[in-house]
Amino acid sequence: MSGDLKRLISTYDLGSAPGHLIRRAQQRAVEFYVAEVGEDGPTPQQFAVLLNVFQNPGMSQTDLVQASAIDRSTLAEILRRMVARELVSRTRRPGDQRAYALSLTADGLRMLEHAFAAALRAQSRILEPVPPAERPAAMAILATIAGFGGGDAESAALAAGDSAGKSAGDDA
Amino acid sequence: MSGDLKRLISTYDLGSAPGHLIRRAQQRAVEFYVAEVGEDGPTPQQFAVLLNVFQNPGMSQTDLVQASAIDRSTLAEILRRMVARELVSRTRRPGDQRAYALSLTADGLRMLEHAFAAALRAQSRILEPVPPAERPAAMAILATIAGFGGGDAESAALAAGDSAGKSAGDDA
DNA sequence: GGCGATTAATCCGTGTACAGATCATTATCG
DNA sequence: CGATAATGATCTGTACACGGATTAATCGCC
Which pLDDT band, with edges at 50, 70 and 90, does A159 fall under? Predict the structure, then answer.
């Protein structure tokens, strides 16, 4: 009967589940981000939008979905707010009235410039508890678990920044 | 002027930010969870609630906030739904009418038992791209980044399952 | 024994996440 | 050219996340 299963369940430690640890890690990362950037600055997702649109002016929302790993529905909502606050401007693309061409407003650029250093500080605080010698390995493991890279978490260590521009944000 | 800053910003790769990788990792983890458990089963958070309440019948919502790392507002909302679906029952604690005593209903227990194996499969899929030999190290690093443990990601490797029952869920 | 501090939980407002349906605009092909 | 498919974006509905204000019950302490 279910007695065996029940015993299994009662001894399972949620704290040993990778998924749970990843969730906790994300809570911590956001906590640092907010602590550094402050309440008035962009949220992490808004920061990603500002950064990507700055680096890629004129990109469409679908382009941004790829670049930011924010799904289309969520991104539409985020942009709705950012456009309302005049951080981002949208114009229909000449030649294709379906797509938008996104760009930063002066306010959006200002906000990005203002938050950038703080966001960098937050990133380094995330890895702070990891001994410096192990940080490249940690980055490689994160990249692997995030679905990038070939699974070798040792050699690829320094390469956390490599493109890996393929299988990322797919779903269906 | 802002020229230097702009150059810095334009060369920054979001993909090399630990926070971004953690976010991606979480998306992937949830993707696997949903794929294994299915649309009808509990969400990851609901699973955590079911598991904790099963292991700790009579616990209060505040207890559960600690155990699950779900904040009080969110947990109230999650429980509202779960109570409405009769997965969890709440009774005011005799002797302290402020707190609830939580327990699983027969349906809640059934759902937990039904989802358990699938949830385990999802957990192992998360680490699948990491070579087996590096998995303990990966768990140790996740625990470290999640804010558990002393920061030594090597010796504690095999201990991913150890209690770690201390500095956990604090915030304010 | 009553009054202020604590504690348990909810409510409110804002923001993110994502699947599925819908709508408009191009593209394609016969 | 016209039906149809594909593409870009929105809308709807459900769920999670979290800070701050509020309410209710209990505790502490004089």
Answer: very low
A99 CA: nearest nucleotide by C1' = D8
Name the residue of chain B whose CA is nearest to A116's CA: B9
- B34: CB partners within 8 A, 6+ apart: none
Q: Do B143 and A18 touch (CB under 8 A)?
A: no
Q: Which of A85, A92, A99 is CA-nearest to residue A46?
A: A85
Flag the least confident range among A142-156, B49-63, B97-111. Answer: A142-156
Between A and B, how many residue pairs show a Cβ–Cβ distance under 8 A? 214
Q: What is the mean pLDDT of residues A7-36?
A: 97
Q: Residue A33: exposed, middle, or buried by beta-carbon count in 10 A (0-12, 13-18, 19+)? A: buried
Kindly report, residue by residue over A43-76, the tens digit of the pLDDT. 999 999 999 999 999 999 999 999 999 999 999 9
Whether B26 CB is under 7 Å from strand D:
no
Residue B3: the pLDDT is 83
Listed range (B68-72, B122-126, B159-163) with the worst mean pLDDT: B159-163
Residues of chain A neighbouring B146 (CB-CB closer than 8 A): 21-22, 24-25, 28
- Cross-chain residue pair B141–A134, CB shorter than 8 Å: yes
Q: What is the DSSP letter of B41?
A: S
Residue A156 forms beta bridges with which residues?
Answer: none
Please name the residues between 110 and 149 in chain B that touch chain A, using a CB distance below 8 Å: 112-113, 116, 119, 122-123, 126-127, 129-131, 134, 137-139, 141-149
Three-state secondary structure of A55-122: HCCCCCHHHHHHHHCCCHHHHHHHHHHHHHCCCEEEEEECCEEEEEEEEECHHHHHHHHHHHHHHHHH
C-alpha B127: how far from its chain's center? 16
Mean pLDDT of chain B: 89
Rounded-to-10 torsion of CA A89, A95, A97, A100: -30
| B73 C-beta less than 7 Å away from strand D | yes
**Cβ of A72 less than 7 A from strand D:** yes
A143 pLDDT exceeds 70?
yes
